[in-house]
Amino acid sequence: MNRHILAISGDGFSEQQNAAIDQYLIQLTQKNAPVKIAFIATASNDNPHYIEKFHTSFQLHETTHITQQDFHRQDIQHIINAQDILYVGGGNTKYMLDCWNAAEFDGVLKNAYAEGIILAGVSAGAMCWFETCYSEVDGRFIQFEGLGLLKGTFCPHYQESERQQLFDTWASTHSIVPSYTLTDNENLHFKNEQRVMKLTSY
């Protein structure tokens, strides 16, 4: 059994229809039939428009979404483990991780990953899988812990000059390796915690 994580910097269904990186993600399941894919929009505080866009974009598949209220369901691990893919949306990374930790949903995700459920996410949903995060919280960039499924740290949207400068300054004073910096058209595929491919979306 292989474990997969697809870290998307800024592309995917939130930016364009029929995004190539989303098609790549679906193919990782190696299933001909519609795949079961769940969207977790915690980082956007379960934004309904974001959730609706997800369902529309993956309408050929069996879609569901997991809200913060769902974290407390007795059968949440069973629901999560029944999926082929868990897709985490962008937004506020620290808020998302704090919510997951408070509800012990971080453990649910780690258990699913150990069972071979494919993990994917864009921006905050990509950064969260790493050991260390450096992201904006209340108007300033700070360091905090990620889920630690992947070693190192990850900076999305690296084409943004201010983010690039702040991240580079922070990284120069911390020995965190590996340190991945991706522009919005770049994505990383990890298999069994090892980077196997860097993909360019457009």
Notes on the protein architecture:
- By secondary structure, the protein is an alpha/beta fold.
- The protein is built from 7 helices and 11 strands.
- It has helices at 20-27, 48-57, 76-81, 93-102, 105-114, 124-127, 161-172; strands spanning 4-8, 36-40, 62-66, 85-88, 118-122, 130-137, 140-145, 150-155, 179-181, 186-191, 194-200.
- The protein has a 7-stranded mixed sheet. Strands 7-6-8-9 form a 4-stranded mixed sheet, sandwiched between helices.
- Helix 2 links the parallel strand 2 and strand 3 (62-66).
- The model has no long low-confidence stretch (mean pLDDT 96).
Provide the gyration radius in Å.
16 Å
Strand order, sheet with most strands:
3-2-4-5-1-10-11
Low-pLDDT regions = none
* Helix-and-strand structural type: alpha/beta
- For the termini, the CA-CA separation is 31 Å
**Strand content range:** 25-35%
Helix content: 25-40%
Tell me how many strands there are: 11
Question: Number of helical runs?
Answer: 7
Query: What's the pLDDT, averaged over the residues?
Result: 96
Could you say which overall geometry the principal axes of the C-alpha atoms support? globular
Major sheet summary line = 7 strands, mixed
What characteristics describe this protein?
202 residues, alpha/beta, seven-stranded mixed beta sheet, four-stranded mixed beta sheet
Question: Quick recap of the structure?
Answer:
This protein has helices at residues 20-27, 48-57, 76-81, 93-102, 105-114, 124-127, 161-172, and strands at 4-8, 36-40, 62-66, 85-88, 118-122, 130-137, 140-145, 150-155, 179-181, 186-191, 194-200. The chain is α/β, with parallel strands linked by helices.
